[in-house]
Amino acid sequence: xxxxxxxxxxxxxxxxxxxxxxxxxxxxxxxxxxxxxxxxxxxxxxxxxxxxxxxxxxxxxxxxxxxxxxxxxxxxxxxxxxxxxxxxxxxxxxxxx
Length: 97
Prior knowledge:
By secondary structure, the protein is an alpha+beta fold. 24% of the residues lie in helices and 39% in strands. The chain has helices at residues 25-36, 58-68; strands at 9-19, 39-44, 50-57, 76-85, 94-96.
């Protein structure tokens, strides 16, 4: 098995809009992140959106981003703004803020 290079790790910043608060979105995101093996955090924003930062192997981050387009059962995702940011290299867990 080859060692992961710095290029294999990515970090994404997501702003999820729609009916995404009060529908267990943050905890569902945390559980999905753990299942995907990625680190970072999720929090509600005052404007009704959910903000996510996720870091990990490119394919694992992509899996979480795909999931976020649907969210948990009672959510309605209308859109996601996504930006790639520099990986911190220090993230080890995924937390709800």
